[in-house]
Design goal:
There is one protein chain. By secondary structure, the protein is mainly alpha-helical. The protein has 2 domains: 166 residues, no CATH class; 215 residues, no CATH class. Helices cover 79% and strands 4% of the residues. It is built from 14 helices and 2 strands; from the N terminus they run ααααααββαααααααα. The chain has a two-stranded antiparallel sheet with strand order 1-2. A hairpin with a 2-residue loop joins β1 and β2. α1 packs across α8. The longest helix has 37 residues. The protein is globular and about 60 Å long. The two termini are 30 Å apart.
Length: 392
């Protein structure tokens, strides 16, 4: 999705609406075909995956159903992501934000009715009978998938029929993407996909490092990560804006504007996340009272989170600078930087420190890695190699 949406941002910046619409049309077909292939692979794996992962036989049925439904909905997820990225890269942040918020609300509602069985709930002293499908773990996947389906339908309709830039109804072009478009999409998208997969794998490894530390450490790590997300979510929003702004300036061949947008958004992200980090540093003990009744877990979570919050400014730099570089189509080198940082600067020190000083060792390694990652991505931004294709 990103490989096509960045090209759309470039086309919009260049004032070439016909190319933007053609790219959107071609991306719909290409994304649908690729995601259908991935869905077929997922369906074939679903019945064997629980056994391969060493899960207990008692959960094979639920695990298979969960992953099977996930695999079947891969095309829906990809279309949802594609349309959201496309609208954002045309400068429309409002509609994707509203639909994403609605999707989260629908996810909670669907899960409420699909996970739990028929039951009686008490509300302000009054009891109500509430219907529930009682599907358990499977209900969680069904609810999430249905909410994504609703989101995808709305975004696809808006992008294809209502968008001033992307609407297909008055534009005739081939659904087949030219070789150069596919090649450029792969150049942008493949490094991002590999980076995402490798980082997710690193997260699994770090979870495995934390597991022997005990239930208190596992719980503290979990709620610490959840609380930290309050601080870094604005950074991802600003990164999306940075991709759009830099991408459009890049497409317009305006080097000074692209440079200005890149640094403006990066510093804005650093400022926003720094302020939230300072607030969370002092408020986290109170936040954790809503997340767990265990004083031991709350104390440890506050200690480790405060270590990582010191790295929040450079964490913001890594997030937004990556978004800015993505807007210029520069994903390979930043992707390699991210991979090196996560695996060498985080995982290896965590593997050494966690068994010796506990969960604090894991979070010290994380804080060091976030600072390192932010610094090298700022250096990449400062080098301006991503601007070399724009003539002065």
């Amino acid at each position: 999705a990103a490989g096509f949406s960045v090209q759309v941002a470039h086309a919009v910046g260049a004032g070439d609406r016909n190319r933007a619409v053609s790219l959107f049309r071609q991306s719909l077909l290409s994304t649908s075909l690729l995601s259908a292939v991935l869905a077929c692979i997922g369906v074939m794996l679903a019945f064997r995956l629980p056994a391969w992962l060493g899960a207990e036989q008692s959960i094979w049925s639920d695990a298979t159903a969960y992953f099977l439904f996930f695999a079947l909905f891969i095309p829906v997820r990809q279309i949802n992501s594609l349309c959201m990225n496309m609208l954002q890269c045309t400068g429309n942040m409002k509609v994707p934000s509203i639909v994403a918020s609605m999707m989260c609300v629908l996810d909670m509602i669907f899960n409420f009715f699909l996970i739990f069985p028929f039951r009686t709930v008490s509300f302000f002293g009054m009891e109500f009978a509430v219907w529930g499908a009682g599907l358990g773990v499977k209900g969680a996947q069904y609810g999430t998938s249905l909410s994504i389906l609703v989101s995808a339908v709305i975004l696809l309709y808006y992008a294809a029929c209502r968008s001033e830039i992307l609407a297909l109804r008055h534009h005739k072009s081939s659904w087949k993407a030219p070789r150069e478009v596919i090649q450029r999409a792969l150049e942008i998208g493949v490094p991002m996909a590999m980076q995402s997969g490798a980082i997710n794998l690193a997260s699994i490894v770090t979870t495995k490092i934390i597991a022997p530390l005990g239930t208190v450490a596992i719980a503290a790590n979990s709620i610490g990560v959840t609380a930290e997300s309050i601080c870094y979510m604005p950074g991802f929003g600003i990164a999306s804006a940075s991709t759009t702004l830099v991408g459009q300036a890049y497409g317009a061949k305006n080097k000074n504007l692209a440079r200005s947008f890149a640094w403006l958004t990066t510093f804005s992200g650093m400022a926003a996340m720094s302020v939230l980090g300072i607030i969370m540093y002092f408020l986290c003990p109170y936040v954790f009272t809503f997340m767990t009744p265990s004083q031991e877990v709350r104390t440890l979570a506050a200690e480790v989170l405060r270590i990582e919050l010191l790295a929040e400014p450079l964490f913001a730099a890594s997030i937004v600078a990556t978004g800015a570089l993505r807007g210029a189509g520069d994903t390979l080198v930043p992707g390699l930087m991210n991979l090196f940082s996560v695996w060498v600067v985080r995982v290896l020190p965590a593997w050494f420190l966690a068994p010796r000083i506990g969960l604090k060792g894991m979070w010290i390694a994380m804080a060091m890695e976030l600072c390192f990652r932010g610094a090298i991505l700022l250096f990449r931004l400062k080098q301006e190699k991503w601007l070399k294709k724009i003539s002065d």
